[in-house]
Amino acid sequence: MISERGKALTIWIIVFTVLTFTTLLLRLWAVRIQKRDVRLDDFFVIGAFISLLALLGTTFWAIANGLGAHTDTVSVAQQTVQKKLLLSSGITWTLATILCKLAILWLYTQIFTTRKFKLAAYILMGVTVSYAFIFIPIFFTQCKPVHAAWDPVLSLTSCRPITRQEFASVAINMALDLAVVILPLPVVWSLRMPTRKKIAVSLMFSLGLVIVAIMTWRIHSTVRATKEKDWNYGLYITALQSLLELWLGIIAANLPTLAPLTSQLIMPKIMSYFRSGNSKEPSSGRRLVYGMRGGEDSALKREKFQMLVNEDARVEVNETRHLNKIEAGASSRSISMDDHSWVDVEANGIGMRRDVDVSFETFHEPPKKAHIFGR
After folding, report:
1. How far apart are the C-alpha atoms of 157 and 148, rounded to whole Å?
2. Does an H or E element contain 343, and which?
3. Which keywords fit this entry according to its UniProt record (predicted)?
4. Is the CB of residue 112 less than 8 Å from the CB of residue 187?
5. Dist. CA 63–CA 4, nearest whole Å
6. Among 274, 357, 358, 371, CA closest to 315
7. pLDDT tens-digit readout, 61-105
């Protein structure tokens, strides 16, 4: 028996699980593009997704047994399944949410490399792990013996009230999420970059606030559940809240790592599309794109432009692009991307870079002097 609420939850699961899995695949693709080793934060996110899949497995089992239906319409055997879901979710949900936090915190240590910041991140990681070691046994030992958790008779006399541990778990988890969001903001706002860039980076790191909002909703729902006798009907909301926290947590951990896909794959294809659409004549020569670092000397820029001028070709400036990027790394270094572009990575982990990409197209014609006007 699948209830109407069970069908609605199934739709939520399909949509958000596909979205979450997509961001995970994109993260791994970005790792390949960067040609870097898989880091610890990548393993944390993969572990969180595996825990999410385990939770989804028990949730589908509960949906097939009447999750979200009115309690007086489900059998004792079906109620037993719902109670088993509650017990198992306490473990799988906790593991997934802890691994999400660890993934984000470890990523912080790869971006912000100052000693004080890394020490604060490590301390917060220790507190996060301690939360798991404390609450997983609490969830698992709510009833003595354990099987009393899904026994309709023993559960009346052998179990602690579940609302106590729910309040404590959600409240502490909310505090941890707030700490994870707040931790990098002072460092970001101390950097020398435009205010709008600081706001953009802060928003990227503040996606966890959405999860905090969901937890606030969950506390409100838990308070209402203490006054409701139709607990199986309200289980739909509890399941949705728990899953939303994990879906959004994994997505929030993945998004900051997707920058290489945007800068190296998506934007070039978009610009190539617009170039082809705005072309006034077919190219009989070759197209060259040069990247100029924002801090280069003007004479050096003019020299690069003049490299394209000769007596046998006409050179046309097709397009200029201004790119602002944030580069992250563990040490100060200069990386040569090609013959005409560079990336500077600052020692403190974040460096702002302004590039100008200029596209030229050459056409072989009778000798004709080319005049290039660049900026």
Report:
1. 9
2. strand 341-345
3. Membrane, Transmembrane, Transmembrane helix
4. yes
5. 10
6. 371
7. 999 988 888 888 888 888 888 888 888 888 899 999 999 999 999
| Encoded amino acid at 31, one letter | V
Q: Looking at residues 264-290, what average pLDDT do you find?
A: 55
Strand order in 350-364's β-sheet?
287-293, 350-364, 313-328
Global confidence as pTM: 0.70
Question: Which pairs count as long-range contacts for 304-312, CB under 8 Å and 24+ apart, including other chains?
Answer: 304/340, 305/358, 305/372, 305/374, 306/372, 308/360, 308/362, 308/370, 308/372, 309/369, 309/370, 309/372, 311/367, 311/368, 311/369, 312/364, 312/365, 312/367
DSSP one-letter code for 147: G
Among the listed residues 149, 165, 167, the one whose alpha carbon sits nearest the alpha carbon of residue 82: 149
pLDDT in tens, 4-56: 999 999 999 999 999 999 999 999 998 888 888 899 999 999 999 999 999 99
| 125, two tokens | 């990681």
| CATH 1.20.1070 for domain 4-260 | yes
Distance CA 286, CA 270 (A): 19
